[in-house]
Amino acid sequence: MAEVEHYTFKDYLNKVLAGTASGIVIGLIANAILGGIFKALIPYGTIFATLAMVVSTMQFLTPALVGVLVGMQFKLKPMESVIIGAATFLGSGAYVATDAGIMLVGIGDLVNVMLMAGLAVFVTRLLDGKLGSLTLILLPILVGAGVGTIGLLTLPYVSLVTSTIGNIINSFTQLQPLVMAVLISVAFSILIISPISTVAIGIAIGISGLGAGAAAIGVTACTAVLVIGSRKVNQSGTTLAILLGAMKMMMPNLVKYPRILVPIITNAILSGIGAYLINIQGLPQTAGFGIVGLVGPIQAVEMGTSVLMVIVAYFVIPFVGALLIDLLFNKVLKIYEHEIFKFVPVKN
């Protein structure tokens, strides 16, 4: 019998983060790149409505994808990884039961997704070799349905993390506009590289106007820093994925190298000031997107900001700022090496 490999809590954390980061990219990138394009093309052919629906629906598979990829991180068998994917989806909060049936409502709470993926792996490894010929019958029940049920029970409590953060950010809206813009920009620049959903936060607190604009600018500030740093150490496809909306794939880097927040926060402060001076506006549903799908910039233009000023706020200030900040912190002050931006893909 093969020797069972032992994992520490740190091993679990790193592998769950790595699987989660890749799962989020796979689940969300199609809609991030093509969703807006297909929706705009709907008047020119019904096929584009179908395509828009497909890439949008693909997002709902994210928790299951995360579970499968986390299982692969632990070198589990294909069947075991798929069952872990099922357990993760069932406990994610990505669906609700209604009188009409089950309704998909999003990608779930990512914190709970990670917890259930880790727990499902732990239980699967604990049961390894103990179920005998009944493995095919009992594993889906004990891990799939069992851990999935635990996820639904923990979901309301885990979701308190998101609501608490939302309440804190909402309190910023009571401050002087410049301070508000800077603090919200910084908050969203950090959240976009964490397991917390910036889109969920924006909608939950109903942030709008300058606050929503600053939030979207903060997401963009983080994107710019990750793109500038990534281009030095990652393949072009990885850097492009980040630019197109896959910032959360860098969550493992945040845990391993917390100093990655130094350039992110600095750029968010600079970009937040820019959002205030230009008076970038937004809505709750656009606050967490940044430049993904050009959602933030388009909304700002529709709310009265000139195209030129939107380009300055969303592209010039964040990306030029990120470049100068990278030169300062990497070359001059030597606070970090570009290795902190290295993305480690899922291992088979």
From TrEMBL:
Subcellular compartments: Cell membrane
Family matches, as InterPro entries: PTS_EIIC
Pfam families for this protein: PTS_EIIC_2
GO cellular component terms attached to this protein's record: plasma membrane
Membrane topology term: Multi-pass membrane protein
Biological processes, Gene Ontology terms: phosphoenolpyruvate-dependent sugar phosphotransferase system
Phosphotransferase system EIIC domain ranges (all copies): 15-342
Superkingdom of the source species: Bacteria
Record field: transmembrane: 12-38, 44-70, 82-104, 110-127, 134-155, 175-193, 200-227, 260-278, 307-329
Keyword Transferase part of the UniProt annotation: no
Entry keyword set: Cell membrane, Membrane, Sugar transport, Transmembrane, Transmembrane helix, Transport
GO MF term set: protein-N(PI)-phosphohistidine-sugar phosphotransferase activity
Keyword Transport: yes
Entry protein name: Phosphotransferase system EIIC domain-containing protein
Record organism: Jeotgalibaca dankookensis
